[in-house]
Amino acid sequence: MNLRQLQYVLAVAEERSFSKAAKKLFIVQPSLSQYIQNLEQQMGVELFDRTSTPIQITYAGELYIETARKILDLNRQLNQKIADVADLKKGRLIIGLSPYRCAYLIPSVFPIFYQKFPGIQIVLVEKTSKTELEDLARKGEIDIIVSSLPIRENEFSYIPIISEDILLAVPPQYELNHKYYREEERNSLPQSRNFATINLKEFKESPFVLLQPDQDLHKVAQTLCKDAGFTPWSILENRSIAAAHHMVLAGIGVSFMPYSLVRYGNFAEHPYYYYLENSRPKRETVVFYRRESYLSAPALAFISILKDVLNP
Asked: The pTM is what?
């Protein structure tokens, strides 16, 4: 059993197709099929049931794949430890995160990180679902994840990064803004943070722009509105906080925004932002990883830099 065998079998298992796995591995399909067939003959069992489409994994295949993932993960961790010992001249750090964090939080970290670790390659894996990122971490395909609480603490450990306010973003077209702000104050709000405080009940008849139900900020929005005594009228749902920001600016509805988007979004124009009366909801951004994983020196350095940058 060698690492190539393990990688080939895992690729077929994940794609449930020899042709798709071959493309993923950059080899021709007949070679991959013959390779797996020879392996099955050596072991005396079939790893895949080829009579169905997509192909199915046999019981022997499940046992092989479970062990293969563990071996490849141990190999990855060993390489990380050796890289630490070898003065971190080469290595790779795989980070899972949302497209929002990739676009607005991470870029300011890279220049500082690469000054210290120029030989470390960073691979960003973007997913809008935290569940998808967790699944990849369980398989050993991601080293660390930048996300928000809550997490499955029985499976993952975490390091706190920043606690930020969740703001209500209100379209500039709404008349009530004139009660709290002067027009010229609008675009200076992100830097000043002199946000007015407003009662969420004032928006019980207003349309809301929300994220998708499986995203944390959607759940936060539902809870805040419920605590205010109403169910939000969701006129539009999407997967991007930045897109929701543009929808609010266009006057489609109100929405909830983490302060980091306001601070790092570099938008030419802004809606009006408010703190919520009787509530100062927070979003806790953390870095989490599998409890049994080894955190490499580059990972620890990245976490430290990320914390410093986001907490100036």
From this structure: 0.71
